[in-house]
Amino acid sequence: MDYVLLITGSSGIAEATALLACKEGYKVFVAGLEEPQCRNLSTRIEGSGYFAGDLREPSAAEAAVRSCLKEFGRLDAVFNVAGASGRQFGDGPVDECTLEGWEKTLAANARPTFLMCRAAVCHWLEAGRGGAILNMASVLAFSPEAQHFSTHAYAASKGAIISVSRAMAAHYAPKGIRVNVIAPALVKTPMSARAQTDQGIVEFIRQKQPLSAGLLEAADVAQTALFLLSERSRYVTGQVVAVDGGWSVTG
pTM of the entire structure? Predict the structure, then answer.
């Protein structure tokens, strides 16, 4: 299959999607911060390539797209997964969230998404062709949970991603560029390691995500992600798809 998918991030949902895409015949290019992790994932995916750099920097985002084009000669879709929890920076309820926590959390999530979108869109406009973008949000952007997940900067960063994605979808649809959002609930990934060891959260999630009776698997999210990135969803744009095991409809 002559279809090139660039994925930012090298673990969790990014890793699961990259492995699934390879299995289904896609060409995969991985971009992320940690060179050893990107290299390790790439070695497990036949015929793939990778770029290591800080995607919060414009030069790195642009270099990632150039590297992908150099490797494969084309770019068909981008899945922006790379991001981080803001707790380490001081995120929390707004009365407790530090300014540093607010700014670093938005920089970790919204900034690289914007920069990668810009780099990909500029390439497609210059090439006179379309493409597909899938951005990573969270159910916390529109379905808050006060007891265990009061991380307001994180919610804001994911809400910003939804807003810019829908605005982009409207603006670039005439150019054949699609932009959608996937919004998972709690998934078994390295970022959720703290939650996975908290028995109170584990029990809460068992009730909050009844379809999965607990945390989702990254591979389950990857299935939906790959559909939204592929030609199978060629008439879908501007949508926010929650893969949440029932979170957003469960009290």
Answer: 0.96
